[in-house]
Specification:
The protein is an alpha/beta fold. The protein has 14 helices and twelve strands. Strand 8 and strand 9 form a beta hairpin.
Length: 441
């Protein structure tokens, strides 16, 4: 390509980043987004790229040296991930190769800079390619470690909840207009009654649908964060030994001395694709030692928050700790290899391995019961909070003594839904969210 054929650089800021994880790999990607993309493509590839067509090209440095050869793909605005022109250069995955191509792109001239964490996704949000819910879902997908987390994040990323929220907002805007019509045409009785009745029907239907979605929110948050499974019992019932056996490695210190475990020890595990936070806790008893007493308090707090409790007792310590009434529990008889009189429960010997398979199967069965069904639409506390705020406003609108107050409550409900998808007042939330993204995403 001659000098006259190279694109003229427009003004503006263009971001660049390596979009693949560091380390040795067969392939790596350098991603560029912004108004200088076509100039970069012409400069690096020395050829005119056809949009949305993978093209084999040599990548050149500032001194015209060939840095690598690979695949270049140009995505024209607005049909791109960020809504801007986007260029992806797929190179060989060595660190040196990627670094040289990245430096060559940055050397194309002023107006190019390294992207910040999550900046590509932020530009996609600002261009309307993603709503706030989908941004959160993308973050969850990147962090997903189990099949259940992937399925849930994918459902949100597909935009199902966002579409529902936009539908709810539309109906609430209509309801508010109808309520205000009763004020503007209060001298016409038939308009007043018909509009008020229609507004009530719309608002109540939205409230009912939000309430239904909220009913599944706890399950969604469990999937995202991992279910809490707590091993609990009096001292010396083999809690730490059982944790090590279930983990398949030495996680907790084991000692015949009672009160060895003073603090909660938590590990991440997976049962049939569902994430779990498995915790060993201090033995529950009246403790004179203030440090041990603090550990017992933390055990009681863990029991109150647990999704499932493994309640341990042994032939030598047959008493079990109290478990909250509505918490799922599995009674386990530990140290079953000791023989003698054993309390009722699933017999397990962490020492010999007897019963561990049955216990794992029972844990998986209980967890499946807690997470059964389609992936939840709500997965984060922020999302739940916005829906709860909207529902509270709609309930307040239903009992408002004046139409003016009812209209204001409906407006606030619509605003809460707007915050949910990122239409209003979410800059601080987005700043924190994008900081957690990797560079190049």
């Amino acid at each position: 390509m001659s000098e006259t054929e190279i694109s003229i650089r427009p003004d503006g800021e263009t971001i660049v980043a390596i979009a693949t994880a560091p380390g040795r790999a067969a392939l790596g990607i350098v991603r560029i987004s912004g108004p200088l993309v076509r100039f970069v493509a012409d400069t690096i590839c020395r050829r005119r790229l056809k949009p949305r067509q993978a093209t084999h090209a040599r990548f050149h440095g500032p001194d015209d040296r060939v840095l690598d050869d690979g695949i270049a793909v140009l995505f024209e605005a607005p049909r791109s991930a960020t809504g801007e022109d986007v260029l992806e250069l797929t190179c060989h995955g060595g660190r040196g190769v990627l670094a040289s191509v990245l430096d060559a792109v940055l050397a194309c001239g002023p107006g190019l800079r390294l992207a910040e964490a999550g900046e590509f996704t932020r530009r996609a949000f600002e261009a309307g390619k993603l709503d706030a819910l989908q941004v959160e879902a993308l973050a969850d997908l990147l962090a997903a470690e189990t099949e259940a987390q992937v399925r849930q994040a994918r459902r949100q990323l597909d935009g199902e909840l966002g579409l529902r929220v936009e539908g709810w907002r539309g109906r609430l805007i209509e309801a508010r207009a109808l309520i205000e019509a009763t004020l503007d045409f209060s001298d016409e009785g038939d308009v007043d009654a018909a509009a008020a009745d229609r507004a009530k029907v719309l608002a109540q239907a939205v409230a009912d649908e939000i309430d239904t979605v909220l009913g599944d929110a706890a399950r969604g948050e469990r999937i995202r964060e991992g279910l809490s499974v707590v091993i609990a019992g009096v001292p010396n019932t083999g809690k730490s030994t059982l944790l090590n056996a279930l983990a398949g490695r030495e996680v907790a210190l084991v000692s015949p001395l009672p009160g060895t475990t003073r603090d909660r020890i938590e590990i991440a595990m997976e049962f049939d694709g569902v994430p779990v936070r498995l915790s060993d806790t201090a033995g529950v008893r009246e403790a004179a030692d203030p440090v041990e007493a603090m550990g017992v308090e933390r055990t009681l707090s863990a029991l109150a928050e647990a999704d499932l409790v493994l309640s341990l007792a042994s032939p030598t310590h047959p008493d079990r700790v109290d478990v909250p009434e509505h918490t799922s529990r599995i009674d386990v008889t530990s140290m079953a290899d000791l023989g003698g009189s054993c309390p009722a429960g699933l017999p397990v010997s962490a020492l010999t391995g007897d019963g561990l398979g049955l216990l794992r199967a029972e844990i998986a069965r209980r967890i499946a019961g807690l997470t059964a069904g389609e992936p939840a639409l709500v997965a984060r506390a922020r999302q739940r909070g916005c829906l709860e705020a909207a529902l509270a406003e709609l309930r307040a609108a239903k009992t408002a003594p004046l139409p003016e107050l009812a209209a204001d409550h409906v407006r606030k409900a619509a605003d809460a839904l707007g915050r949910l998808v990122g239409r209003v007042d979410v800059e601080d939330v987005l700043d924190r969210l994008f900081e957690g993204f990797c560079i190049g995403k």
